[in-house]
Amino acid sequence: MPRNRHSKPAGARRCKVSPGNHRARPIAPHGFSAPLSVLACGGRPPEAATAPTAPPFGAGRLWDDGRAEIDAYEAAVRRDGLPRKFTAYLIVVKEDLSRKRLAKADPGHDPADLVTVLKLNHVLDYRTGISSCRQTATCYFDRDSMELLKLSLASSDWSGSTYKEFQRRDRGGLLRVHTDRDDPAEASYDVPIGPDVVFYDQLPLWIRSLPQAVGTRRELRLLPTQIDPHAPRPEIRKGTLQAVRQEILLVKAGGFQTIRWQLDTGGGRPDVYWTARDAPHVLVAWDQPDGGGYRLKWTQRLPYWTLNRPADERYLEGPAAAAPRGTPAGPGGP
Residue of 81, 140, 177, 278 with fewest CB within 10 Å of its CB? Predict the structure, then answer.
């Protein structure tokens, strides 16, 4: 691809780049008409060896502010062989679960049975011609360890509905599936658990909990995405996730200093994730092997469960449209 220089767009975060130490490299997944502008920084950053020790990701006080992180993306996914463009949302919020039932705890629940989690909702809503598809994948992470305790998927389109749920227990994991398709229509699958066993769908948040430093590497046993109306037995693949270099990205949300992560599963194109270097290391962009991808439009912290009045749709347009700024945290929770 031709190489062109890009200036920092209006509203972008300030990024310090030394002259002659970067190059603009457009990257255009098949689902996008416009390329992603990448300024690749050469050399190992001098501050990497002296960076202050940060608290564990889930222990950050940010998650206790009574709000949720809402990230909106210009997105494209490949369905029926074609790219489908839409706005995707990743929503991260803290809540308490019943440890016994792995369900949201009601007020007054026995404190001895509570476990605090970070919950990731991944919301997709797109059209496939005349039909439409809405899918929500939810991952529940133990706040202290960032281990996946539960994963659920609700998927519906004009053909019917699918529900899946994985639960982690002391003796192992179990994935239950219910679909309207005979492939199978209903099944339960034993799933191994361990520090190296990772569902593909947990990666957009789990990567953010890893050390944000070039050279960080994890050897994984990777379980496939569950964002799929079909429900075959999950087959484990070996994968390597590695932070390969620092790059400066220009997206609609602005300019970000990022860490570029690559997920290789042997053969073919890797998944590529870019996380912001600054905490809480928001996912800035994501390129998928089939040509789909995500580009950050905006990010804001909101008590979305209180924003249920007709005029509150303005918050979906991003922080600039969500006046007045500084919405107070709401009581209760999601």
Answer: 81
- Number of domains forming the structure of the chain: 1
Strands (E), the chain: 22-27, 36-41, 68-79, 82-98, 103-104, 114-128, 131-142, 148-157, 160-169, 172-178, 186-191, 197-199, 217-223, 237-251, 254-264, 271-276, 283-287, 293-302
Contact 280, 300 (CB under 8 A): no
Residue 263 lies in a domain: yes
CB 115 within 8 A of CB 131: no
Percent pLDDT > 70 in the chain is: 81
- The maximal CA–CA distance of the chain, rounded, in angstroms, is 61
Residue 36 domain flag:
yes
Q: Which backbone phi and psi does 315 adopt, to 5 degrees?
A: -65, -20
10 Å Cβ neighbour count for 49? 8
Q: List the domain range (segments joined by +) for residue 136.
A: 22-305
Q: Report how far residue 251's alpha carbon sits from residue 239's, in angstroms, rounded to the nearest whole number.
A: 28
| Residue recorded with tokens 């109306």 | 229
Please say whether the dihedral angle defined by the alpha carbons of residues 234, 236, 240 and 241, taken in this order, is positive or negative: positive
pLDDT exceeds cutoff 90 at 144: yes
- Grouping H, G, I as helix, E, B as strand and the rest as coil, residue 269 is coil
Cα 64 to Cα 280: distance, rounded to the nearest angstrom: 13
